[in-house]
């Protein structure tokens, strides 16, 4: 059965999401945002009991939220605003000069706006994505690990040197001293710490 994102959510969802982000100008992390959406929309997927504990349900919830966030990002961009979207900090603010084309070139935007990813990803795919959470890795929440991998545009199998190499590339591209976004650079640093906890330090 084919279902669209709009069929899963209330009609005013994106407007409500926009208002929530406006109420948190300092930014809000994904977990806190999901909790707020669950309280505001008790009949939505965000309020399904146990959804944050089951890997496939967690992936679908994360994807649904980010799908809506990237849709909202396109809307606010038309009004001179920018939505920085990272699991650890989702923040709405004014668009900085020279950043008009960033949304169109973002591979994560392309991924999350492709609803087929939500439809076609199964439990086995999610298990491969999340990897083994035992052997010292269980301290990293599944959502944080998946979001950090997505931000780094990496997939299993991975080694610690792979992570460090990609970290240096991303930080070089997005460092504020080179015209990048401070929020993006901070998100890269946060994701690197998460991945170090999971894969080990170099």
Written description of the protein model:
The chain is mainly α and 202 residues long. The protein has one domain (5-199). Helix content is 57%, strand content 6%. It is built from 11 helices and 2 strands, in the order ααααββααααααα. The chain has helices at residues 5-8, 13-22, 30-40, 55-77, 102-105, 107-113, 116-120, 123-130, 142-152, 160-174, 182-199; strands at residues 81-86, 89-94. The protein has a two-stranded antiparallel sheet. α9 packs across α11 (182-199) and α10 runs antiparallel to α11. The N and C termini lie far apart (46 Å). The model is unreliable at 99-104 and 132-136 (pLDDT under 50).
List keywords for this structure.
11 helices, 2 strands, two-stranded antiparallel sheet, mainly alpha, 57% helix, 202 residues
